[in-house]
Amino acid sequence: MTDQTPSGAQTGVSAADVKKIARLSRLHVDEAQLEPLAEDLSGILKWIEQLGEVDVEGAEPMTSAVDMAAPLRKDDITDGGVRDQVLANAPKSDDGFFVVPRSVE
Amino acid sequence: MSDLTKLTLDAALTGMANGEFSSVEITKAHIDAIKDAGKLNAFITDTHDLALEQAAASDARRAKGEAGLLEGAPLGVKDLFCTTGVRTTACSKILGDFTPTYESSVTANMKADGMVMLGKLNLDEFAMGSSNETSFYGPVINPWRKDADLVPGGSSGGSASAVAADLCLGATATDTGGSIRQPAAFTGTVGIKPTYGRCSRWGTVAFASSLDQAGPIAKTVKDSAILLQSMAGYDAKDSTSLNLPVPDWVSACGASIKGMKIGIPKEYTIDGMPKEIEDLWQQGMKWLEAAGAEIVHISLPHTKYALPAYYVVAPAEASSNLARYDGMRYGLRVEGENLNDTYERTRTEGFGDEVRRRIMIGTYVLSSGYYDAYYLRAQKVRTKIADDFKAAWEKCDAILTPTCPSGPFPVGHKFNDPVKMYLNDIFTVTANLAGLPGISVPAGLDANGLPLGLQIIGRALDEETVFKAASALEDAAGFSAKPLKWWG
Predict the structure, then answer these.
(1) % helix / strand / coil in chain A, to the nearest 5?
(2) Which residue segments constitute the domains of chain B, with CATH numbers given?
(3) CB-based contact (8 Å) between B370 and chain A?
(4) Measured between alpha carbons, how far is B168 from B227 in angstroms, rounded to an integer?
């Protein structure tokens, strides 16, 4: 892990990195899969790093595919009163509520 | 009666208008064809009873003189569009039997125009793939065959395969990096991705919101114009929807291209591209020249950086969009020891390998310490790519390229090499990054007798020129080959 991109980020993903990314992504990765996945992701990121060759001096980051102003609307309620529809696909619901695992002990 | 499934959408609409056959008759013919084509795995949810009801209702409307743009036409819908009362899965286990209580704006437009929906079509899980091999419901098989089963391309592989095999008159699709145009090229069909914002994204399962755009896969350029005309339109429920009238694209098909300047970007000649694709591209230039266009050579210098930029931007947006799948409100829930464990088990079991890989790449490039190096840089490179096109439009009206660097490949062939798979989208992804319309037109067969496509890219909002040039290509190519029926 000694390579540097022109922008200063280290290349290469370690097993520890994979563990951290998986936790942030709320995904579980088996211990045995950490190394192979690290190699996989490193390969993809190494290929992505050719972006470092581009002179982006003065370029604004593109955040919208087509030039248009973000539309504004009145802050009115436009929808609602559809509790049963909202709950229609719930894995668990009871008495008009979602049932979820306990999150506060 | 001759086989109604062989008709184009345009001919079928005319036939129904002239009273030659009814919507029920042509819908039944397609249902029979679908029942015969299980081996292609194109449809994952059949709605045949619903289709026959819709067809009968359509015939009744027509009898009253109320015919919409798609009146009575049996079509397929990619299973990324939410459909009221019909299971919508994005071909992911995590959505389970999710059954929307609402309709996507695109399919709502089509239903209002008289569409008959035959069923929901297979795709790569969450539209992430270029071969339709990442679907939870198994790979789609290309009706075109050479020795082995071939992929139909992806992610709209079900849509492309179904149209090519005459299982529907046309189908909806979506394109984030080439997912309409690449499968169209692989199956000898026409596919157009319009300008970003033409079709509402409301009710379409999100992958990468700044790139996702719906469009049709069809048998002909004119059919694709008819379908897009119905799908497109302003929608206040999508804040990136373009508040502009939908032009008459059908009339643009077949219009003269005399004096049109067609740009040929030198960067689209890449190492390892088969000579037959290079030759077909040259042939395409000659065809357009013979139709009165002028060929001009242009440069899009940042082309080689489009795919790496895409594989930062798209996974970053996907990792945010897919955070909603937490097992609490809909879809799969796998109970764990506590809330976090439940999230992790649900997402690990619910998402397939490629989706997990992209979520992790997206999370990585957005994480603290890497955001500037990867994400911000990729967005700046995206600006450079859009600027390349802006400079090109000073010299030309449309751009001609091959659609893909290869023809369709065998199932399983590239599945284990993500970067190799990603390279399939090298010629299509630029139009997504810049938000431009692009169409793939079947233009010839390779040495194995498999279809190859040529792509026309146009200015933002100028689908009209794209349809004109695509029609000229279609006329000159005279592509009439069909796959031999082996599947039923």
Answers:
(1) 35, 5, 60
(2) 1-488 (3.90.1300.10)
(3) yes
(4) 13
Best B361, B433, B457 member to test A by mutation, with max A CBs in 10 Å, is B361
Question: Residue B359: closest CA among chain A residues belongs to which residue?
Answer: A25
Q: How far is A30 from chain B (nearest CA, A)?
A: 10
* E runs forming strands in B50-106: 74-78
pLDDT at B239: 93
Quote the pLDDT of residue A83: 96
**Measuring CA to CA, which residue among B85, B19, B24, B87 is closest to residue B53?**
B24
Out of B328, B335, B381, name the one closest to residue A56 (CB): B381
In a domain, A22, yes or no: yes
Asked if the Cβ–Cβ distance from B357 to A73 is below 8 Å, we say no
> Which two three-digit tokens encode residue B286?
């000659």
* Residue A6: pLDDT over 60: no
Q: For A101, which of B210, B342, B432 is closest by C-beta distance?
A: B342
- Residue A8 CB-density burial (10 A; 0-12 exposed, 13-18 middle, 19+ buried): exposed
What are the tokens at B281?
């591209």
Residue B78 annotated as catalytic: yes
Asked whether B82 and B88 are in contact (CB, 8 A), the reply is yes
Whether A28 is in a domain gets the answer yes
**In which band, very low, low, confident or very high, does the pLDDT at A105 lie, cut at 50, 70 and 90?**
confident
Chain A residues in contact with B379 by the CB 8 A cut-off are: 61-63
Asked if B179 is an active-site residue, the reply is: yes
Residue with tokens 């095999």: B165
Q: Among B22, B23, B58, B78, which one carries the catalytic annotation? A: B78
Q: CA B32 to CA B160: how far, in whole Å?
A: 18
- What is the reported pLDDT for A10? 52
pLDDT at position B418 is 79
Residues of chain B with pLDDT under 50: none
Is residue A74, in this structure, part of any structural domain at all? no
Catalytic residue status for B200: no
User: Chain centroid to CA B222: how far?
Assistant: 16
The Cα–Cα gap between B51 and A52 comes to: 52
Distance from CA of B406 to the nearest CA of A (A): 20
Phi, psi dihedral angles at B71 (to 5 degrees): -50, 115
Positive/negative CA dihedral, B477, B414, B374, B125: positive
Q: Which domain holds residue A11?
A: 1-54
Cβ–Cβ of B195/A28 closer than 8 Å?
no
A104 and B339 in contact (C-beta within 8 Å)?
no
Measured on CA atoms in the order B229, B64, B118, B5, is the torsion positive or negative? negative
Domain for residue A13, yes or no?
A: yes
Q: Is B147 exposed, middle or buried (0-12, 13-18, 19+ CB in 10 A)?
A: exposed
Nearest to A61 among B360, B373, B379 (CB): B379
Query: Cα–Cα distance between B188 and B219 in angstroms, integer?
Result: 8
H or E element at residue B140: none
Number of domains in chain A: 1
| Phi, psi angles (nearest 5°) of residue B338 | -150, -175
Identify any residues that bridge with B172 across adjacent strands, giving them in sequence order: B216
pLDDT in tens, B219-238: 999 999 999 999 999 999 99
ipTM above 0.85, yes or no: yes
Q: Is the model's pLDDT at A9 over the cut of 80? A: no
